[in-house]
Write a structure and sequence with these properties.
Blueprint: H1 9-20, H2 23-30, H3 34-48, E1 53-55, E2 60-62, H4 64-89, E3 95-100, H5 102-119, E4 124-129, E5 143-149, E6 157-160, E7 163-167, E8 189-192, H6 196-204, E9 217-218, H7 221-229, E10 234-238, H8 239-248, E11 252-253, E12 263-269, H9 277-297
Helix pairs in contact: 1-2, 1-3, 1-4, 2-3, 5-8
């Protein structure tokens, strides 16, 4: 016969110990003693009827069942904490939580979000920048701008991305107004992770045969754009990420044919928030901003 759980304190102590992999470190976070944490976990093990940790002389390790419970508990506690925070903050309709990638947050969303807050000063905007997908069901996120492969007819697609070759005006020789395709062999061709996109662009422009320097790669488009701004070479980047720097003249765009790029940005909304005024306002504002960016690209 199963035993009922009579206290949540053991679950909280177990969650903390599972995250840290240590009773001592969990005790520091919860401001308890390691012995108190260990006792709570032992009582929880007695309540659930199975061991959660294998105890070694110098460390602890989750058992298989302990690992399963830890994953479920982390999700449940995350939802609970998000709900408590939302209730503490007051009116849910006045809080807008937006998740997106580091690159888009830094180079596109944050530089223009003031225009949204000027339109709707009553909204409390909270931006979470992470390259990990936000959980759209736990209440911590209202809407997410995600970088996705494109599917035809996708109603949530906001912008079909294109990769553009950009460079700092500092690379121009005296009297030179712009770099051309012929200059690609003169500078390092900066890329994200692999050279595949550069090779497609070279092929699209019928200049694949040549001696090119692919010696520098970067972890994401934001860093790649910053490398171009620093004059380290010619970067092949997302137009959205480089857009502000192109618009201000800090970067110039190489005139060439763009290679096909099957990715874009989708707006994904928490199902419980769909239909709310704050989401409608965000969607309309994003559309206007993206339409402006798209016109400049066209």
């Amino acid at each position: 016969m199963t035993k009922p759980l009579r206290s949540l304190s053991g679950l909280i102590d177990f969650d903390c110990a599972a995250r840290w992999g240590s009773f001592k470190l969990a005790a520091q976070e919860l401001h308890k003693t390691p012995a108190a944490i260990s006792l709570q976990v032992k009582q929880l093990e007695a309540a659930v009827g199975f061991e959660l940790f294998t105890r070694h002389p110098r460390h602890i390790a989750l058992t298989d069942k302990g690992q399963e419970l830890a994953v479920t508990l982390a999700r449940v506690l995350g939802e609970l904490r998000a709900k408590v925070t939302a209730l503490q903050d007051g009116d849910e309709e006045k809080i807008l939580r937006i998740s997106t990638t580091h690159s888009l947050a830094i180079k596109w969303l944050v530089p223009r979000i003031h225009r949204f807050t000027t339109l709707y000063p009553e909204l409390d905007i909270r931006i979470d920048s992470s390259d990990h997908l936000a959980d759209m069901e736990d209440g911590s996120t209202d809407a997410a701008l995600r970088f996705h492969p494109i599917e035809d007819g996708d109603p949530d697609l906001m912008f079909r991305e294109r990769l553009v070759a950009v460079y700092s005006p500092s690379l121009l020789a005296p009297g030179q107004e712009a770099l051309t395709l012929a200059d690609l062999q003169r500078f390092p061709l900066l890329h994200e992770h692999s050279t595949e996109d550069w090779i497609q662009l070279l092929r699209e422009n019928h200049i694949l045969k040549g001696k090119y320097d692919f010696s520098r790669s970067y972890s994401n488009f934001a860093v790649l754009t910053q490398a171009a701004l620093a004059g380290q070479g010619i970067s092949l980047v997302s137009y959205a990420i480089a857009y502000e720097d192109i618009r201000t003249g800090a970067l110039k765009m190489l005139a060439c044919r763009c290679a096909p790029y099957p990715r874009g940005y989708r707006l994904v909304v928490n199902r419980s928030k769909e239909g709310t005024a704050k989401i409608a306002r965000l969607r309309a504002w994003l559309k206007d901003e993206i339409d402006e960016m798209r016109r400049s690209l066209d």
